[in-house]
Amino acid sequence: MLSVFIRNPHFQSQTKDRLTSLEAARFVENAVRDHFDHYLADNMDRGRALLGSIVERMEERLRRRAEREVKRKTATSARKLRLPGKLTDCASDDPEGTELFIVEGDSAGGSAKQARDRKTQAILPIRGKILNVASATADKIRANQEIADLNLALGCGTKDKFDEASLRYERIIIMTDADVDGAHIATLLMTFFFQEMPELVRRGHLFLAQPPLYRLTAGAKTLYARDDAHRAELEATEFKGKKVEVSRFKGLGEMNPNQLKETTMDPKTRSMLKVTLPAAYEDRQPVKDLVDRLMGKDPAERFKFIQSRASAVDEEEIDA
């Protein structure tokens, strides 16, 4: 605790909730600076986390100051948009080269914000599993907040009102945990894009991130595995005959920003899957029929799908 006594103190406002005297600032800096420098030098991870938190709070203040009114250029014009409050936007005004990462939860969103390239990468956290649009009414879809936020962030409209020139990002990347729940959320999001914005998928804007499930370490060597099969492959090749320390990530929020950037977000080191439509589903109606069968209201269709493919599943991969 610091105690400073000065003459004629100056405060920010009548509420006197913040001291603004330059003399007081000098006293505090002289007393704290050296100790704080030593602390940061000895605790670099905490220093980076503190810096990321400060930058995030600064961006939040700037967004609030602008009252969430953001002016962004599109390919044809510049227009003012009201963006969802959870969106952490990128700095670039040109959609070319920009990316929107859709992540599950505020925890993963916090790591992604620190790991991103602020110039070209935007982050939109969503809360849990979004509405299954294939089995919901139009009124229920319009009333859903997560879907409304996603539509606002993209800015391109839906169905027959879709306008590629108004799409605010070149790539839309679904980034969920590398587990069953994450796969379910990704499926619900793909269902949304297939039904509400099929042209976005058809024109190659939708991607799936490939976050690792395992971290494998032997000595100074560290590699990441996407799933159990990839882990077994790495252990048999890269770590053959070595004692390997294996850690399993419970989710994206458990990864520190450096790990998330290296494995999942940095274009130089990441791998992604591009979501496309097979040739047989180029027409709108076959896409609708497929989505209705797998994600619609009739559970009998999903049961048939599971039965027809049950023999292809390895029993050892089924969770007990």
Task: Describe it.
With 320 residues, the chain is of the alpha/beta class. Among the domains are: 63-211 and 268-298, Rossmann fold (3-Layer(aba) Sandwich), CATH 3.40.50; 214-248. The protein has helices at residues 22-42, 44-65, 105-115, 138-143, 145-154, 180-196, 198-202, 228-237, 257-265, 284-295, 299-309, and strands spanning 69-73, 78-82, 99-104, 121-126, 171-175, 206-209, 214-218, 221-225, 245-248, 272-274. Helix 3 crosses helix 9 (257-265) and helix 6 runs antiparallel to helix 10 (284-295). The longest helix is centred in the N-terminal third of the chain and has 22 residues, at 44-65. The model is unreliable at 68-80 (pLDDT under 50).
